[in-house]
Amino acid sequence: MSATLPSWPYPRYIAHRGGGRLAPENTLAAMRVGAEHGFTMFEYDVKLSSDNVLVLMHDDNVDRTSNGKGPAASKTYSELAQLDFGSWHSAAYAGEPLPTFAAVARYTVANGIASNVEIKPCPGREAETGRATALAARQFWQGAATPPLLSSFAEEALQAAREAAPELPRALLVEKVPADWRERLAKYECVALNINQKDATRELIDAVHAAGYRIAAWTVNDPERARLLLDWGIDGIFTDELAAIRPAA
Ligand code: G3P
Ligand code: MG
After folding, report:
1. 25, 57, 58: residue to mutate for ligand 1 pocket, most atoms within 8 A of CB
2. Structural domains in the chain?
3. How do residues 56-95 score in pLDDT, each as one tens digit?
4. With a 6 A CB cut-off, is 240 part of the ligand 1 pocket?
5. Terminal-to-terminal C-alpha distance of the chain
6. Where is the GP-PDE domain (predicted)?
7. What's the predicted TM-score (pTM) here?
8. Mind listing the pLDDT tens digit for each residue in 94-110?
9. Any bridge partners for residue 216, and if so which?
10. Which pLDDT score, from 0 to 100, does residue 241 have?
11. Does 238 contact ligand 1 (Cβ within 6 A)?
């Protein structure tokens, strides 16, 4: 007998970092590409600048995704805003700015797009980033039909998000599925476990559902694998391959 599953107002296809590989990750340009490909949910990574502005960025350092150098943690928003976050991808996106979380929230809410906000703290700023993200999300999504799903690998961030805005749904992100996943999901009052797709099995999906949680997998870039996981009843797949793995028109 399976447990009652928590509400999951999310589509099963989720564009990873907004636009997958087709546009510079974690930018508004990426979101627009994701939307053009029919995606109605995006995952993106959020962290704090040194002067506490929430911005979208994956890495600890700006080097890979901009023309700047060094840790994001030591840069103010004004310093980050002067960098080019598009040229590394392709000339078509030269000059693409780093978006604030506020701007992306506005874009997604205005377009009826659901969000998975991955809290990706700069090292040592886990709790404050979790708290700031949750409080900002509560404000940005006030009155919106679908709340954002907050997730993190950083359990301290998840805990802080839970304390700051308990009403916002949370997912525990794991690199490897820990033996005590049930206890951890209960501890942070999560609705879902977000796993590496390599760990996805029919048995695990069934066990997570039987325990009363949803389950999603990142990053699924092989169409056959995507089909299999969806057949097994997974609740969401994050993909970089927006052309090959996408919602039906
Ligand atoms: O949130 C799913 C996925 O984005 C987690 O890994 O490194 O791409 O942020 P990463
Ligand atoms: Mg992410």
Report:
1. 58
2. 13-59+99-239 (3.20.20.190)
3. 999 999 999 999 999 999 999 999 999 999 999 999 999 9
4. no
5. 35
6. 11-249
7. 0.98
8. 999 999 999 999 999 99
9. 194, 236
10. 98
11. yes
Tens-digit pLDDT profile for residues 163-220: 999 999 999 999 999 999 999 999 999 999 999 999 999 999 999 999 999 999 999 9
Cβ proximity of 155 and 119 under 8 Å = no
Mapped onto helix, strand or coil, the DSSP state of residue 74 is helix
* Integer Cα distance of 126 and 128 in angstroms: 6
Q: Is 16 one of the catalytic residues?
A: yes
92-113: b or e for each residue (b if 16 or more CB lie within 10 Å)?
Answer: ebeebbbbbbebbbebbbeeeb
Of the pLDDT bands very low, low, confident and very high (cuts 50, 70, 90), residue 2 is low
1 Cα to the center of ligand 2, angstroms:
33
